[in-house]
Structure formats: structure tokens, C-alpha cells
Amino acid sequence: MGLFENILVPIDGSSTSLRALNSAIEIAQMSGAEITILHVIPAVEESVKTRVAKFEKQLEQQGKDILDDAAVVAKKQKIKYKTSLVRDSPGHAIVRLAKKGKFDHVVMSTTGAGSAKDDMLGSVSNYVVHKAEIPVYLIR
Ligand SMILES: Nc1ncnc2c1ncn2[C@@H]1O[C@H](COP(=O)(O)OP(=O)(O)OP(=O)(O)O)[C@@H](O)[C@H]1O
Ligand SMILES: [Mg+2]
């Protein structure tokens, strides 16, 4: 059993998250690990669902596009990879998957498409660093 066998790589489509994907690909090339590229479609509250049905569709399409683009990047390298699209609160989904026992590491970036500045930790990274029970590699 190697140190790296199954790596969870959450991405939000931002350039920093794609940098983390590239680091994860390098780790996979060195170790033979499989990477699972995960995008979480942010869950919208049930009560406002009908009003935002169109927005939900957009988020879903955007999530598919993010993973399709990431798959193009991963496919060019000689690594094993999967993609996964779920709908949830991003932090919760990442930590839940990280707890299932399959993954040995999370590789993600410190900031994403939202409001965290360069020297900060975004809310999702912050949540995952505090709650995940496996090592989390944060890429700047
Ligand atoms: N919806 C998501 N699905 C998968 N991974 C995500 C998602 N949102 C964030 N991440 C991961 O967390 C990293 C950091 O993003 P985070 O959301 O913590 O910071 P931010 O977007 O800059 O700030 P904030 O969202 O708190 O305003 C992303 O680059 C990505 O790796
Ligand atoms: Mg964000």
C-alpha cells in the first residue's frame, strides 16, 4: 500500500482550483494514485427552489462544464481519474466523501472563485481543513 492511492480533488472551476488539480496530477504520476475530481453544485434551499429552478439548471450545467474541462486536462496525462458531481453544501460534501474511507488525501486550493483574497483561506478550504480526518494538501 502506497501513501497515495486515492486522492480527492475538489474543484470549483477557478484558476486556483485548476492549479491544485495540476498538483494532484503530478502526485498521481509519481505515486500511481487515482484522483477523483469532485465538483459540488451548491444546494439551494427548498423554499426558494421553484423561483430559482432556472438558476439551478445553470449551476448544474456549469458544474458539468467544469468537470468536462478538468477531464480534458487529466486525460492528457497517464493517470487514473474519475469525475464526480454532487449537489450539497460544498464543505459538507467534501468532508463526507473524505470520511468514507476510500480517500487517503484531499488536494485543493486555498482560495477559489469566491471572495477569499490571496493570503486568506476560503470558507470551503477552511471548513475542510478543520473537519477532514485525512491529510489535506492546500495549494496556493
Ligand atoms: N462547489 C465546490 N465544489 C468543489 N470544490 C470546491 C467548491 N467550492 C470550493 N471548492 C474548493 O475549495 C477551494 C477554495 O474555495 P473557497 O470556496 O474555500 O474559497 P473562495 O471561493 O475564494 O471564498 P468563499 O467561497 O469563501 O467566498 C476551491 O479552489 C476548490 O478547491
Ligand atoms: Mg468559494
User: How many strands, what sense, and barrel or not for the largest sheet?
Assistant: 5 strands, parallel
Proportion in β-strands: 15-25%
Evaluate the radius of gyration.
15 Å
CATH topology: Rossmann fold
List all distinct small molecules, including ions and cofactors, that are bound in this structure. Answer: adenosine-5'-triphosphate, magnesium ion
The level of helicity is 40-55%
Low-confidence stretches: none
The total of beta strands comes to 5
Structural class: alpha/beta
Order of helices and strands: EHEHEHEHE
Distance between the termini: 29 Å
Quaternary structure annotation: single chain
Please state how the strands of the largest beta sheet are arranged side by side.
3-2-1-4-5
What would CATH call the class?
Alpha Beta
- Helical segment count: 4
Q: How many separate domains make up the residues? A: 1
Annotated CATH homologous superfamily: HUPs
**Average pLDDT number:** 94
- Give the overall shape: globular
Q: Do you know the CATH architecture?
A: 3-Layer(aba) Sandwich
List the helices and strands and how they pair.
Blueprint: E1 6-10, H1 15-31, E2 34-42, H2 53-75, E3 80-88, H3 90-99, E4 105-109, H4 123-131, E5 136-139
Parallel strand pairs: 1-2, 1-4, 2-3, 4-5
The structure holds adenosine-5'-triphosphate and magnesium ion.
